[in-house]
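DM from R.C. (forwarded with permission)

"hey, sorry to bug you on a friday — could you get me a structure for this? deadline for the figure draft is monday and I only need the backbone to look sensible"
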Amino acid sequence: QLQLVESGGGLVQPGGSLRLSCTVSGATLSDYAISWFRQAPGKEREGVSCISSRGDVTNYAGSVKGRFTISRDNLENTVYLQMNSLNPEDTAVYSCATPGRFVTMCSIFSSGMKDWGKGTLVTVSS
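My reply, with the result:
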């Protein structure tokens, strides 16, 4: 059974960087498009970025474009989210999700997601 596990969150100062990981088990990562979402306290969930199953298509929310980079290593069964120039508005629980097996294109809309990880907390504060 597919499982998604996020890691790499933590406390970082404004202007700093973090790299989040989404590790897939129980399935072959190359069969899945993966998306990252975040939810800040008191706010709705927001799509952050996504990558197609082949890794040839990526998409970013306007709020993170130019600062975040998504990538995947199918041999390691892991999708990464490199986050640079972090600011306090990036503070949130970050979760990865997938629309399901063999859905090749990615989306940053949560309604299409089928499986979710539990999330990892990112706090940007001085």
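R.C.: lifesaver. The chain has no helices and eleven strands.
me: no worries. The first strand starts at residue 3 and ends at 7.
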